[in-house]
Amino acid sequence: MDRYCVVGHPVEHSRSPWIHARFAQLTGEPVQYGKLPAPRDGFAATVRRFRDEGGRGCNVTVPFKFEAASLADTRSERARLAGACNTLRFDPDGVFGDNTDGAGLVRDIQAQAGVDLARRDVLLVGAGGAAAGVLGPLLHTGPARVVIANRTVDKARALADSHAALARSASVQLSATGLDAAPGAFHIVVNATASSLAGGAVPVPGSVLRPGALAYDMMYGPAAEGFLAWAREHGAVPRDGLGMLVEQAAEAFLVWRGVRPDTAPVLAELRALLA
Ligand code: ATR
């Protein structure tokens, strides 16, 4: 068996072991996947120990995704743009770092929810690590424009600046605003803020939603409920981040094994399990 794990602080509630166990069954790949808690000041030592004991790679979750990017010897373009890694692969010549969050979001929106991003107007709410992790792959889908709205406008501007070259080459209008200043209405609104975790209300006005817009929260479970209720009240199509969770895992499985598992049955099972 080839060993993988998810490293985080905390990791007790992670669904990743369940998801990867299903992927291993479905693909026949000899993958064993566990949880590996790391102390806040011990991420690199924990990962190195796991690798020295024969581990083949790991997923990385809060709060270590930025540290994972520095630990990697080489990085994918999407990890470099995000400035963070959620997937490490231990190669004979060093540690390869990738970020599959954005690909997971895009795939869930396009392949599972059936919403095309090309030539659409997208509002990305938030400018922290979660938003940075998905912006590159979002731009690659060729939307007409992407507006980043954030409480701290300077952070939104910095995120837009770091992706300006990619936006230009993909012919996407990319801009940054405050939460109340998003211009116009959007086909797709993605919530990448932590406001619900802090018990806060949805941080943007309902006017940002076009009728029938897709309103996507990157969280799932109770943390997404407020945003999804807000979406329904305003005539939008609500979607939580459970599909993104499964899709980013499938993309990591592909990075490690060269095989992409079928995600639809796994998402359906996981939804039933959590219902
Ligand atoms: P993550 O890695 O999960 O993105 P983060 O880097 O701390 O975490 O970013 C959290 C995001 O949620 C930021 O966009 C933050 O806004 P600021 O950049 O202004 O801090 C946003 N956020 C957190 N609490 C919020 C609230 N109560 N209202 C609006 N935005 C909030």
From TrEMBL:
<feature type="domain" description="Quinate/shikimate 5-dehydrogenase/glutamyl-tRNA reductase">
    <location>
        <begin position="116"/>
        <end position="196"/>
    </location>
</feature>
<dbReference type="InterPro" id="IPR046346">
    <property type="entry name" value="Aminoacid_DH-like_N_sf"/>
</dbReference>
<feature type="binding site">
    <location>
        <begin position="126"/>
        <end position="130"/>
    </location>
    <ligand>
        <name>NADP(+)</name>
    </ligand>
</feature>
<feature type="binding site">
    <location>
        <position position="241"/>
    </location>
    <ligand>
        <name>NADP(+)</name>
    </ligand>
</feature>
<dbReference type="GO" id="GO:0008652">
    <property type="term" value="P:amino acid biosynthetic process"/>
</dbReference>
<protein>
    <recommendedName>
        <fullName>Shikimate dehydrogenase (NADP(+))</fullName>
        <ecNumber>1.1.1.25</ecNumber>
    </recommendedName>
</protein>
<comment type="function">
    <text>Involved in the biosynthesis of the chorismate, which leads to the biosynthesis of aromatic amino acids. Catalyzes the reversible NADPH linked reduction of 3-dehydroshikimate (DHSA) to yield shikimate (SA).</text>
</comment>
<feature type="binding site">
    <location>
        <begin position="14"/>
        <end position="16"/>
    </location>
    <ligand>
        <name>shikimate</name>
    </ligand>
</feature>
<comment type="similarity">
    <text>Belongs to the shikimate dehydrogenase family.</text>
</comment>
<feature type="binding site">
    <location>
        <position position="61"/>
    </location>
    <ligand>
        <name>shikimate</name>
    </ligand>
</feature>
<feature type="binding site">
    <location>
        <position position="248"/>
    </location>
    <ligand>
        <name>shikimate</name>
    </ligand>
</feature>
<feature type="domain" description="Shikimate dehydrogenase substrate binding N-terminal">
    <location>
        <begin position="6"/>
        <end position="88"/>
    </location>
</feature>
<dbReference type="GO" id="GO:0050661">
    <property type="term" value="F:NADP binding"/>
</dbReference>
<dbReference type="GO" id="GO:0009423">
    <property type="term" value="P:chorismate biosynthetic process"/>
</dbReference>
<feature type="binding site">
    <location>
        <position position="220"/>
    </location>
    <ligand>
        <name>shikimate</name>
    </ligand>
</feature>
<feature type="binding site">
    <location>
        <position position="77"/>
    </location>
    <ligand>
        <name>NADP(+)</name>
    </ligand>
</feature>
<feature type="active site" description="Proton acceptor">
    <location>
        <position position="65"/>
    </location>
</feature>
<dbReference type="Pfam" id="PF01488">
    <property type="entry name" value="Shikimate_DH"/>
</dbReference>
<dbReference type="InterPro" id="IPR036291">
    <property type="entry name" value="NAD(P)-bd_dom_sf"/>
</dbReference>
<dbReference type="InterPro" id="IPR013708">
    <property type="entry name" value="Shikimate_DH-bd_N"/>
</dbReference>
<dbReference type="InterPro" id="IPR006151">
    <property type="entry name" value="Shikm_DH/Glu-tRNA_Rdtase"/>
</dbReference>
<comment type="pathway">
    <text>Metabolic intermediate biosynthesis; chorismate biosynthesis; chorismate from D-erythrose 4-phosphate and phosphoenolpyruvate: step 4/7.</text>
</comment>
<feature type="binding site">
    <location>
        <begin position="150"/>
        <end position="155"/>
    </location>
    <ligand>
        <name>NADP(+)</name>
    </ligand>
</feature>
<dbReference type="GO" id="GO:0009073">
    <property type="term" value="P:aromatic amino acid family biosynthetic process"/>
</dbReference>
<keyword id="KW-0521">NADP</keyword>
<feature type="binding site">
    <location>
        <position position="101"/>
    </location>
    <ligand>
        <name>shikimate</name>
    </ligand>
</feature>
<keyword id="KW-0028">Amino-acid biosynthesis</keyword>
<feature type="binding site">
    <location>
        <position position="86"/>
    </location>
    <ligand>
        <name>shikimate</name>
    </ligand>
</feature>
<dbReference type="GO" id="GO:0004764">
    <property type="term" value="F:shikimate 3-dehydrogenase (NADP+) activity"/>
</dbReference>
<feature type="domain" description="SDH C-terminal">
    <location>
        <begin position="241"/>
        <end position="271"/>
    </location>
</feature>
<keyword id="KW-0057">Aromatic amino acid biosynthesis</keyword>
<dbReference type="InterPro" id="IPR041121">
    <property type="entry name" value="SDH_C"/>
</dbReference>
<dbReference type="Pfam" id="PF08501">
    <property type="entry name" value="Shikimate_dh_N"/>
</dbReference>
<dbReference type="GO" id="GO:0019632">
    <property type="term" value="P:shikimate metabolic process"/>
</dbReference>
<feature type="binding site">
    <location>
        <position position="218"/>
    </location>
    <ligand>
        <name>NADP(+)</name>
    </ligand>
</feature>
<dbReference type="InterPro" id="IPR022893">
    <property type="entry name" value="Shikimate_DH_fam"/>
</dbReference>
<dbReference type="GO" id="GO:0005829">
    <property type="term" value="C:cytosol"/>
</dbReference>
<dbReference type="InterPro" id="IPR011342">
    <property type="entry name" value="Shikimate_DH"/>
</dbReference>
<dbReference type="Pfam" id="PF18317">
    <property type="entry name" value="SDH_C"/>
</dbReference>
<comment type="subunit">
    <text>Homodimer.</text>
</comment>
<keyword id="KW-0560">Oxidoreductase</keyword>
